[in-house]
């Protein structure tokens, strides 16, 4: 009886099917067009929220559908999220050094 | 048969997407696993840089005037190039899975073409900005701009070199699985640009 060997790489077994790449691409282009249009909004806060919101949606689309992240083991997500957590720690670690220095000194 | 062997066999028979999500990193092909670790480390590098930029940008609203001098149409063109190249490299991966060598090589060549287009546009941008006096030392905004886009451009060059080397093997039918690994790296380059574009070009 054949036993699955998890360390062996068999590309044909590993293949998990894929999303519709062209559909993903056109969705990405549409979001890209919308984010460019959002740059012309008069309300700055709304424009920034929309632009960066759409950038994050685009990143998720690329990661999930082109990089196939949604088919990867959950532990891969943890590896990537760990990197982001490191960035947050870094951000708040240096926050006082940049944000709390008087502007005359900062310039 | 031991209980472990039975469990492994049951796992092998369960090929549903849910079953794939349950498996650990140890079950992944080593090359892909290495690429994901590389991507995680790149997230820290670019994430740290972008986080620092955001903090400085919030502290210095006057940087908006400097940011207004970056060329949004050129940045948008480069975004289009990278988004399209992401499609072509994933099509190359798909072709490699189907053992369609010609299709894989063709799509990798198109990807290289878009990468080259990106670098040409970036060079035009740099020369225009430098000729207007916006150099690396002109203001802190331009230091960040050249550092982030320059580091990204280096990654584009590294990605293109990798894709070219992998393509040489694929032409001979060798190491087809590497198309996916090179593609993962190329998508990372795209992901970073997706965030850099609004930060440096749109958010004036």
The CATH architecture of chain B is Up-down Bundle
Calculate Rg of chain B over CA atoms. 21 Å
Total E-strand runs of chain A = 0
Mean pLDDT of chain B: 88
Largest interface here, residues on each chain? A-B, 56 and 63 residues
The main β sheet of chain B shows up as: none
Helix content of chain A: over 70%
The proportion of strand residues of chain B reads: under 5%
Distance between the termini of chain A: 72 Å
Mean of the pLDDT scores of chain A? 80
User: In total, how many domains does the architecture of chain A comprise?
Assistant: 2
Class per helix and strand makeup of chain A: mainly alpha
Count of spatially separate domains of chain B: 1
H and E string of chain A = HHHHH
- Give a quick account of the main beta sheet of chain A: strands, pairing sense, barrel closure: none
**Looking at this structure, what is the CATH superfamily of chain B?**
Cytochrome c oxidase, subunit III, four-helix bundle
Strand content of chain A: under 5%
**Unreliable stretches of chain A:** 1-13
Q: Secondary-structure map with pairings?
A:
The complex is a heterodimer of chains A (107) and B (204).
Chain A: H1 11-14, H2 21-38, H3 44-66, H4 74-99, H5 103-106
Chain B: H1 3-13, H2 17-22, H3 30-59, H4 63-67, H5 72-97, H6 101-131, H7 140-171, H8 178-202
Helix pairs in contact in B: 3-8, 5-6, 5-8, 6-7, 7-8
Task: Name the features.
heterodimer, A: 107 residues, mainly alpha, 70% helix, flat, disordered N terminus, B: 204 residues, Four Helix Bundle (Hemerythrin (Met), subunit A), elongated, Cyt_c_oxidase_su4_prok (chain A)
Task: Give a structural overview.
The complex is a heterodimer of chains A (107) and B (204). In chain A, 70% of the residues lie in helices and 0% in strands. With 107 residues, chain A is an all-alpha fold. Chain A folds into two domains: 19-71; 73-107. In chain A, helix 2 (21-38) packs antiparallel against helix 3 (44-66). The N and C termini of chain A lie far apart (72 Å). By secondary structure, chain B is mostly helical. In chain B, 81% of the residues lie in helices and 0% in strands. Chain B has eight helices and no strands. At the A-B interface, helix 2, helix 3 and helix 4 of A face helix 1, helix 2, helix 3, helix 5 and helix 8 of B. Chain A: One of its GO terms (cellular component) is plasma membrane. Chain A: It is a multi-pass membrane protein. Chain A: It is found in: Cell membrane. Chain A: InterPro entries: Cyt_c_oxidase_su4_prok.
